[in-house]
Amino acid sequence: MNRHITPWRPAPNRPNPDFDARLEPGELHLWRIDTGEGGADPDRCGTLLSEAQRARVDALRHDTHRARYTRALAGLNRILATYLDRPPAQIRIERHPTGKPYLDGADRWLSFSFSHSGDLALVALSAGPDAALGVDCEWVRPRANLPAIARRLFEPATVAELEALSEPERLECFHLAWTALEADVKCDGRGLFRPRPPGSAAPEIAHLVPAPGYIAAVACARLPPVETWRMLELCD
């Protein structure tokens, strides 16, 4: 298992008329969103959501989860709006039958992937013919059923590697494997328990720490060099 993890190299940027939102083919932009209590006001964020997004928020049972998800979706819309040059509430996100979100029509040039966990959301963006990508971030925390989850999700070799590690190492490596798997299936949109389509190659995958206590993975057919990734902070 590859344990190399790239640290977050913050370059705070506020989406405004002076922000350079150009995204060239082969580039990767990563945006970090604070979805916790220190983030944007959820009531104001709610005005930036589409009807479909509001319905997804309303389906959540707990106030904390609704507030986090509202901040995450509003942040996603604001970020996409910056690249597409339109108001956030006018962003229209379609979904494939397997659930993979995408932009259609004139916006199809922009590929994105979105993940949220705990008080953090992460958005990855790319453009061009090899632009399909997947991102997953997870809050690293102990899980009572970790061995059972591992046996359900991972190949036997990965399970054996996890079982041979000490508890602290096992927790980190579990989240490395989990985020890599999620980013992989998000990249081609096949779904978590479906095999890779025949003839399709596995994407390149790299890990990063988007915030203390979190691990994330990015998957793309051709990942640009890590040192060229642009890491951005969504400011309220």
UniProtKB/TrEMBL annotation:
Domain 4'-phosphopantetheinyl transferase: residue ranges: 133-194
Keyword Hydrolase found: no
Assigned GO CC terms: cytosol
Coiled coil: none
Alphabetic keyword roster: Transferase
Domain of life: Bacteria
Annotated region (Disordered), positions in chain: 1-20
GO biological process entries: lysine biosynthetic process via aminoadipic acid
Residues covered by the 4'-phosphopantetheinyl transferase N-terminal domain: 59-124
GO molecular function: holo-[acyl-carrier-protein] synthase activity; magnesium ion binding
Family: Belongs to the P-Pant transferase superfamily. Gsp/Sfp/HetI/AcpT family.
Name of this protein: 4'-phosphopantetheinyl transferase superfamily protein
Source species: Allochromatium humboldtianum
